[in-house]
Amino acid sequence: GGLLPAMMLMSFLLILEFKGTHSMRQRAAGATRTPRVNARYGIRARLPRIQGRLRIPMQLPRAIDSSGNDGTNVGANSSSTGVENQGNSASESVGAKALQEDSGGVPVEDYGPSWWRKLPWGNFVTFYDVETVIWALGLSTLIRLVIAEPRYIPSLSMYPTFDIGDRLIAEKITYRFQRPPNRGDVIIFEPSEGVVKKTYFNPFNDNVFIKRIVAVAGDTVEVKRGKLRINGVVRDESYIKDGKIKSYEMDKLTVPKGYVFVMGDNRDNSYDSHVWGPLPVENILGRATWKYWPPSAFGEVTRADALTQKE
Prior knowledge:
The structure is a single chain. It is built from seven helices and twelve strands. By secondary structure, it is α+β, with helices and mostly antiparallel strands. The strands form two sheets. Strands 1, 2, 3, 4, 9, 10, 11 and 12 form an eight-stranded antiparallel beta sheet that branches. The radius of gyration is 34 Å and the shape is elongated. Mean pLDDT is 73; it is low at 30-67, 70-83, 98-104 and 306-311.
């Protein structure tokens, strides 16, 4: 759904913020690497070290004798000259290394560890950018698997509650830690085996249905004279299309343990439990809680679990 890119972007920004805070703490502790802005090769910002990048030689002060003359004392002069030569040699070697390793104004070591730079892409894709993207993808996937996931409505089986193209959030916490599925919950689930054609490669898990639970384990379900009856009581379903079921009737059925009975709100145009039977609870992926698209319909997905005596 459209919310998945937003979740990935949020994860990406959170990781960048964490890594930026970590870098600031390293600098405060005296770390040698600092962030810089690299507009050409990456989004990870790192400031270069002044020596080598700007190629400014580090000059050491010469020794000054007691008379104030610079270099008049032979011993001091020779000593200072030796130190100066060593400093100049070190700065020249660093500058030469920077000239050799610098690629497009970016020190080579900033692309990542040495093993990364040996890879074919190691000198134009930074290890740190790839690391950040992987963390963002991992975090967004974890959120989708454990906490909540976005879904879109591809059919009219839940009309008028949901129309084609509507988008919603399905949370996954309630059934894991708070309570079992109840009547009136709108759920997303994987259909039972044999309900849809089996696919051996489906990384995006597109075979997901959305229906409303009308009965739980131990309940009796039947459709008679256009009305749904649960445990012999007619259910008040003002939210369903046309307010009644026109196209079929169903004999009384008892929902077995570990199952629920699900139906679409568009009862006459829904491929649901009245066709293929009760749904195993273990197939439930989450509970629809919020509709976020279209904006005019933004709000909570209401439950419909009230039973009223009609006859």
